[in-house]
Every structure is written in C-alpha cells, then in structure tokens.
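Help needed: design a sequence for this.
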C-alpha cells in the first residue's frame, strides 16, 4: 500500500499534467513534464493503484462512476449502492443526503487505467471514463458458454470453453468440415420448445457449434438448425456454411455465415438466421409414420477467400 500522503501527492501531480500526459502518449514520447515518470514507471503504477482503491466503492467494490456520492463525514459510495443502503452511510450510519464527491470524480477523470482484461491479453490503457466502454467491446473479454440447453454462467477464452463443453456438458466433438447429423425425437407433437445436444466441429483449427432447436415461430411450430462460431464476429465472417435436410426427392438448403458466440443462441434464433423447417415438413422428411422426428441434417463449413 502506498502511504496516504504520497498517493495524494501523486494524484495532484498527475491531475495537473493530465492533458500533457495524454498528448505525450499519442506520439509515444516521454515528456519531462510528466511528474509520475520522474522516478520510473513502477512508482507511477504503484501510486495509481492507491487512487484506484479510493475509487472502489466500499460496498460493492466496483469502480465508481459519476455521480459519486459521499456522506457528511466524507465516506464515498457509488450511486447504485446509495440506493441499496437506503441512503444510510454504511460506514458511519449518517444520513447520506445528496452530496456529490466532485473532487473524486475529477481525480478519476485524470486517471488512466489498464483494461480489466489485461491478464487475457489486452495491453491497452484508457482514460478512466472510457475504460468501461472499451471493456464492453474489448476483443479479449471472455466469452459466455455457448451451451444453450440451460443457463450456464461459465465464461472464458475459447480453449477454456472448448474444454468446459467437453468436460461439463459432455458435448459431442467432431473433427472435419463436413457433417451428417441425426436429430430424433419421439412425440414431436407434444414438444413446443426443445434444445438438442450441441455439436462442436473442429475445422480450420477453429470451433463451430451446431444448434438444433424446436420452438414456436408465431403460431407455427418449427425446427431450426444454425451454426455459431467460437470467436469474434470479424473472424466468423471469414467462414460460410451450408445445411441440408430432405427426403423423398425434396430438400431444403440453407447457406449462411456462422454467427459469433458473442451473439446468444436466443438472439440468433430470434433473428431466424439459420435453416428453419416447418414441423409438418420435418415430419414428412422423417418418414411415413409422422409419429417420430427423425431428421438427417448434412452440412459443410468452408473458408471464404
Ligand atoms: Zn457500490
Ligand atoms: Zn459516513
Ligand atoms: Zn481491453
Ligand atoms: Zn457451460
């Protein structure tokens, strides 16, 4: 921990040179006016951490953003927690009133902090108030588990999620860019909403999730198959895929671009970005009895040049 006095001194100095520092960063030159670089980068980072802690809400430990509140005794609190504690200071129990801590808001403005996902590979540094916005779109931010059957709260990078799908969801893994998959369900007429086991394909050194679901599209019961790419959208766009389902000389063909798993399976489903099969047709494709769903979906993934 930096002693309070020195942390405070560093704050004032870095605040007074805020714009110089920002300018200096742009052209990548060190500048003699930057106070915190005087005795080496380490100390600058160290004192920033001290201020960083001042900006942590004592209740939820999140970084505070304007309006930052304080009680008459100077204890600070984020605006979400102010509501949660019913306006009673959690430190001294005084009524919080409606006092803003403009000084701390100003200090925050002068800070530059590394992206939260630094440990995942992001080396960018941001002014305090643009950090959150960056993090919402940071390409290193963790992905949500793409498994659709249940709400799963696991997040991580792609290798972590591939291992998680295999180990925890017992998902089928296939190598290769063509596939031939059977979806079976007895009593399909009773099913309004269903999700089949996810299948993961390994090809071009990347992973793709094949989803198959039953749901109501307006009044019509339908099945839908679609592919999601385990990576960001700009990479997903480099691939295409096709799906086919049919029988008795008829078939439906879908060609599309896999969606990034940044888009939830529900979002993709609701946008109908995949092969949609009306239930009647699906049962027709399933065979003569129409009692059981027995669909064979074939497909292929390729890379666009
Ligand atoms: Zn809080
Ligand atoms: Zn207080
Ligand atoms: Zn980042
Ligand atoms: Zn999961």
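Sure. Designed sequence:
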């Amino acid at each position: 921990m930096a002693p309070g006095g020195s942390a405070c001194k560093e704050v004032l100095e870095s605040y007074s040179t805020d714009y110089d520092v920002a300018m200096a960063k742009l052209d990548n030159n060190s500048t003699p006016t930057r106070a915190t670089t005087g005795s080496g980068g380490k100390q600058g980072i160290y004192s920033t951490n001290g201020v960083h802690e001042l900006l942590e809400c004592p209740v939820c430990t999140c970084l505070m953003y304007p309006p930052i509140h304080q009680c008459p005794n100077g204890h600070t609190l984020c605006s979400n927690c102010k509501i949660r504690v019913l306006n009673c200071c959690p430190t001294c129990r005084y009524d919080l009133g409606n006092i803003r801590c403009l000084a701390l808001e100003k200090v925050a403005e002068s800070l530059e902090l590394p992206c939260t996902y630094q440990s995942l590979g992001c080396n960018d540094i941001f002014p305090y108030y643009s950090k959150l916005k960056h993090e919402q779109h940071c390409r290193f931010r963790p992905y949500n588990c793409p498994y659709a059957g249940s709400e799963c709260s696991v997040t991580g990078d792609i290798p972590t999620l591939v291992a998680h799908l295999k180990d925890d969801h017992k998902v089928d893994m296939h190598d290769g860019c063509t596939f031939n998959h059977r979806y079976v369900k007895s009593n399909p007429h009773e099913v309004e909403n269903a999700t089949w086991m996810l299948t993961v394909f390994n090809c071009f050194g990347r992973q793709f999730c094949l989803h198959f679901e039953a749901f109501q599209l307006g009044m019509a019961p339908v099945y839908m198959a679609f592919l999601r790419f385990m990576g960001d959208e700009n990479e997903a766009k480099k691939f295409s895929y096709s799906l086919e389902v049919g029988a008795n000389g008829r078939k439906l063909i879908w060609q599309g671009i896999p969606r990034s798993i940044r888009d939830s399976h529900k979002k993709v489903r609701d946008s109908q970005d995949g092969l949609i099969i009306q239930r009647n047709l699906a049962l027709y494709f399933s065979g003569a009895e129409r009692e059981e769903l027995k669909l064979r979906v074939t497909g292929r993934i390729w890379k666009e040049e």
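The two ends are 53 Å apart (CA to CA).
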